[in-house]
Write a structure and sequence with these properties.
The chain is mostly beta strands. Helix content is 9%, strand content 34%.
Length: 112
C-alpha cells in the first residue's frame, strides 16, 4: 500500500534468497517512509541479513533487500542499485505507482 497513491501487488520468490525471504516474511507487515535513489524506492525495515545471492543489476519490477541500508527496495525501472541487493521477488501489478512516490511517503507491505 502506497500512501495516497494506491496498491501494488507483488510476489515473493523464496528460491531467489531463501534466508532473506523467510526472515522478511516473519516481519510482515512492515511499514516505512520512502526514500528515493535513481529508479528505486526504498525504506528501512527491521531486518539485519547479510548478502545472499546478491546482485548488482536488477530488472524492472524487482523487490529486493539491501543489506548495506537494511532496507527493502522496489525498482520501478531497470537500474543499478547503490550496492549489491538480495533479490526477493517481483511487483506483478501496478508497478507504475512507484515512479510517482515522493520522499517521505508511507509504504506498507503486507500479506493478502
Amino acid at each position: 500500500m502506497v500512501e495516497r497513491l494506491g496498491e501494488a501487488k507483488g510476489e515473493l520468490i523464496r528460491f531467489l534468497a531463501p534466508r532473506t525471504v523467510d526472515a522478511f516474511v516473519r516481519k510482515l507487515p512492515v511499514e516505512g517512509r520512502a526514500a528515493l535513489y535513481s529508479k528505486e524506492v526504498y525504506f528501512e525495515v527491521p531486518l539485519n541479513i547479510g548478502e545472499e545471492k546478491s546482485k548488482r543489476i536488477v530488472e524492472k519490477g524487482t523487490i529486493a533487500y539491501w543489506p548495506m541500508g537494511r532496507a527493502v527496495c522496489i525498482f520501478y525501472d531497470k537500474t543499478r542499485p547503490y550496492s549489491s541487493v538480495n533479490l526477493m521477488g517481483k511487483v506483478m501489478d501496478n508497478l507504475e505507482i512507484f515512479s510517482k512516490v515522493k520522499s517521505g511517503t508511507r509504504i506498507t507491505i503486507k500479506t493478502i
